[in-house]
Automatic annotation (TrEMBL):
It comes from the Bacteria. Residues 124-148, 152-176, 199-225, 1035-1059 form the Trimeric autotransporter adhesin YadA-like head domain. Signal peptide: none annotated. Residues 258-296, 350-388, 453-494, 524-562, 593-634, 660-702, 758-790, 826-849, 887-926, 978-1015, 1065-1102 form the Trimeric autotransporter adhesin YadA-like stalk domain. Belongs to the autotransporter-2 (AT-2) (TC 1.B.40) family. Keywords: Cell outer membrane, Membrane, Protein transport, Signal, Transmembrane, Transmembrane beta strand, Transport. Gene3D superfamilies: 1.20.5.170, 1.20.5.2280, 2.60.40.4050, 4.10.80.270, 6.10.250.2040, GSPII I/J protein-like, Serralysin-like metalloprotease, C-terminal. The keyword Cell membrane does not apply. Pfam families: YadA_anchor, YadA_head, YadA_stalk. This is YadA-like family protein. Residues 1131-1191 form the Trimeric autotransporter adhesin YadA-like C-terminal membrane anchor domain. GO terms for cellular component: cell outer membrane; cell surface. GO terms for biological process: protein transport.
Amino acid sequence: MKKKHISMIVTTMFAGTGLLASGAAHAQANFVDRGNPDNALSGQCIDGTNPLCVATKSGNYVAVSSSSYSAGTNAKAGVAGIAIGDQSNANSKGGTGGGGAIAVGVGAQSLANSATAIGTVAVAAGNTSLAVGRQSAALGDFSMALGNVADAKGDRSIALGHSALAQDSQSIAIGSAVGGGNDGVSGGATYDATTQTRAAGKRAIAIGAGAVTNGDDQIAIGSGAAGANNGGTPVFGGTAAPVGGAVSFGSLAHERQLKNVAAGAADTDAVNVQQLKNVNSGLQGQIDQTNTNVTNLGTTIGGQIANINTSLSTATSNITNLQASDALSVKYDGADKSSITLKGANGTTIQGVADGKDAHDAVNVGQLDGAISPIQSSLSSAVTNIANLQGNVTNLSTSLSQTNANVTNLSTSLVGTQADVSNLQAADKRNVKYDGAEGFDKVTLQGANGTTVTNVAAGKLSADSSDAVNGSQLYATNQQVAQNATDITNLQASDKLSVKYDDAGKQSVTLGGVGASQAVALKNVADGKDAMDAVNVGQLSKATGDLSTQIDNLDQRVTNNTTQIGALQQDALQWSKSAGAYDASHGSGAAQKITNVAAGDISATSTDAINGAQLKSVQDQINGQIGGATKNAVVYDTGAQGDRLNSITLAGGQPGAVTITNVAAGALNATSADAVNGAQLYATNQRVGATEASISNISGNVTKLGDQVTAIDGRVTQNVTNIANNTTDISALKQDALQWNSTLGAYDASHGSASPQKITNVAPGEISDTSTDAVNGQQLNALKGDLSGVDSKASRAVQYDYSADGSTRLNTVTFAGGDKSAPVQLKNVATGIADTDAVNVKQLNDKVAGAVQEGTKNAVQYDVDPTTGARLNSVTLVGNGSGPVVINNVAAGKLSADSTQAVNGSQLYATNQQVSQNTQAINNLDNRVTHIENKVDDVANGKAGLVQQQDAGSPITVGKDTGGTSVNFSGTSGDRVLTGVAAGVNNNDAVNVGQLNSALKNVADNERVRATATDANTNWIARAEAGSFGSTATASGKNSVAVGQGSVADRDNSFSVGAKGNERQVTNVAAGTAPTDAVNVQQLNDNVQSARSDAKAYTDQRIGQVYNSFNDLKKDMYGGVASAMAVAGLPQPTGAGRSMVSAATANYHGQQGFAAGYSYVTENNKWVVKASVTGNSRSDFGAVVGAGYQF
């Protein structure tokens, strides 16, 4: 609130009282004794540039100036300040500055402009800071500390909870210390770092009991959570990108799952498991196929090189044609894919070649050296040439051609080895080759139904990786994608179960949806607190009970007024037409004693009333007859023939009614005859008003009585008539009527003689458990006769309780015995009449039903079981015409995992908006996944990647868009065997083991190398629907290709480079571009990283929006509560004709509310009129006017 508002309120409060200081403040005029407002006391009020009011007196003294207010011993208030409480100080920065400080509480200190400190020893030292709670401290500018010993040290920091600490600027600590915290002192409290919630670091956030951050921009969420530094290594490799901070949901060894994460959409959004599973699912099948198609590509290329044409001369021609093509690409030499010529100007090195084992395997330099070494003694001139072979295996033919005469012109010698070459050519059928002589950038696997490439090692997952990925890598991605799909499905299913607004106007919510045919129970609703909170049945039942009590009280007051207006004396024992007898209830509706009754005649014909002495005599006789064992028994009454009656008459050992204890609650229904206990009757009594007197006690002046009776409404008209008719008998009636003796508290039958008199002609009274009728002598005589026949059956009777030593009989009866704890039902109880009579359940139900019928007509009640009547955990709302009911003005319910509060339309609208945005984000993600799938299709179809084929009949290219002069086949376990290598024909062709063995055989013993002709017609390779390349490789599927030893391609259109359990890795896979291209790890990593980034950004954005909206809503709500509290705190005058101007302030959850009002009591003290205005720190204002009539 602004300073001028405070000044206005204070001025209004004390206008005309002479208590305000103007100009130089005067001590006598500015101090007020609150206990005696008319007396001014001495004090100190300094005016000038820094007005300061100090209340120096103890007790009820208040200091007030035109711009400040202080109350309490040594309370100090600066410019526009408020100080309430002993030693409180609201003096901004030593009295300088804009002022407006507020300090409320013993020792509270508000030391900065517009600062507020509320609580014992609370300190608000920062500008516009707020400290609420014992020893709370808000030390930074714009800081907020809420809670005992809460400490907000940094500027704009927030500390919420016991011992919470927000240490640095813009930090937030929400949560209480684990196990209680620390009772330090404000401004210097020593906090226990192991238990408190602490946010250390700029912009750090710690939420939860004991949550701790220790760095800038850290976020720790959850009990015991510890903040973490940003950084780390991404899941798929690479270097972590710089981020603004890290969020921790737990601590080391106490991690938490982050559940219910919406699908990410933006680059920085978090992705949930379902999204990752969806990505994996979409990529799995195609990448698996691609992985198997390109596994061990180097081995495949080596095998294709061995596919020699019909003769070496034809191969030489093909090599010449290939040399004209792209020098940087590796391609087949011709359309028949029988050979591959590497294009290095001086030959091309093939590195990482494992030792050849089979006849058609490529050999490495190590093998060649090992084979030539034994014959070096006879081939000394070949040493130099063989050494050259060690440096460059791919130039093996050139190296051999430079050897001495024994190995000179190795290519020519190989021409003569036709038989050996024929064997090599036969193996060429299993080789994989480039598609054509141009580009060397495409390889088509020849399986009729595709070819599986197996045994693919895990490719590198990074932005620049061109490695092929294997099935296990893609499976992991698919699992994540599938999980993402499940999470999205769950989110969509969850949305179907959400309660939503009926329309965009958010004015109503229909449970079950608009047009629902069946009402829905709104269960587990917490108690409403604020004005717009939903209330539950428990609150409504209590309110109904309170309302019923108030109605009963009102009935009582009306009855009392009626009695007072009549001013009728009711002391006479008079005849009741409805009862057909004299009614001794004295207008109370309960039985009363009749004292001083003379002993009546006891005979068969007597109608005299019996007094207590006579009945005591009968009781003594009973005790004597039934003996000591049954003297305390409660027995059934017996009839004239000795038969047992359905009644029990209780008579205590001392005067007064007898207590029946341990009575179980009787059934409450129309047919119940159970006894009800005190608790049940108490509830009924609360609702039963005093019975209107039906008999008027005639006394006083007849004229005055007639005037008073005339004022009574139609209910006593008959009584007025009766009184008028009996005017002449008043004197005699006053003399002879049995009247009430207030001194004795009973009807006195002495008839003015001061000695007992008989009451004769008493009709037989009702004999029952609850009867309070007087009995006549005839009934007592019959009772004496009945009692003479009491026998041992009395041992089964209910007995009175006795003292522990058995000497004193108590006025209580414990059913089932005094040592029993379980209640016992008292059944078949007749309808009670007097105060001490037991009542049955039917009476209780009738009374309760009548009392609350009007109050519950429009009440919302719990549903009840139609069979048992038990209250159910549901409420059915029924409107006009049995239609659905709108619940309006419902406050925003708490949104948390354990909340049972009802939510209103605005909350559900926000949820719907969020769901709509999530749906859009999911659609966007689906589009990106589709884009990735298209890329995967490109790789699989040969349109992109390292190995490509643009059309089904076009050549296959390998690495056509990349550079490099060597192919490295080495793996993590060392060199690999390059199998399926056809016999080399050109100087820079790779040679296989068969060629080497033939060469060695021909040069053995220094003999000249010999060769036989090769039949060109038997060694060309043709593939129809399937093909296999490698020892024991099998391609049984249509259009399938199996490459590599033991490879199996048993599915149509598959390419395999291994078998189950013996997979191979396809490396150096270029990034796929066409829909059927294979994707490499880098592409996968980029797309997954992009999805993760998008999800994180979207999640952060939505969380921020929800947080801001919730924070604003919360502040508005707190401001409204503060305004309501301030209005409730406005006092009002109590004396007739008095007026009062009052002001009040309140603080609730950091929001301030203010109220000022005027109230007036009329001269006749009947009417009270009030008018108030309110405002709060949320800039919300209101006004209220009310009037009341008191009587």
